[in-house]
Amino acid sequence: MELSSTFLAPSSATTISFKPSQFQTTTTPLVPLRKRNLTIRSAISRSKKEETIETVKQQLQDCQLIAGIKYKGFTVQQFQQLRTTFPENTKLIVAKNTLVLKAIEGTQWEALKPCMKGMNAWLFVHSEEIPAALKPYRTFQKEKKLEDNDFSGAVFEGKYYAPEEFKALETLPTRAEVYAKLLGSLKNPATSVVGTLQAPARNLVLTLKAYVKKLEEESGA
Q: Which residues constitute the domain of residue 161?
């Protein structure tokens, strides 16, 4: 069977014939617009989750302490203000508990599990000066009257600290205090040195590190 079409010109007529075999048709399944939007959103969501997990993993490098802060009810402006109060070596990140838990899986930071409830912002401290890193939030909390937005928990040196135990973290000696104590011990009788050595393990480690640093600086000079 042939299909024909005739084109007329002022002085002539031309007939062109087509065979069915010369026609090819293709069928493209229609995807509902709503379904396509859901697919795109799902891909973006998955990508965002992976990005968040990677960000948390990067913050774990050389991290000394991780603390959770209950942020339910915070305004965007409050978050922006809060972030500017922390030292440069302390980062505040908002991330879902499930994503943080995924990032810390298999590490010493898994001890954070008890505070994986509610809405948390996460404080990553990359300094041995723990009290100086925690103090900005305490000040902010008091100024903004955010009594209900307390620390939800923290992990330091592999140990979990509940909210009621934060005083122990907030009163840790600073490097300068440890250094001063070391110098005082070296100038005093041997019993003072023994007293320093009998202090908690962390104080001893900090003391030795400070003394080694002093010797290195003097040697370099």
A: 36-170
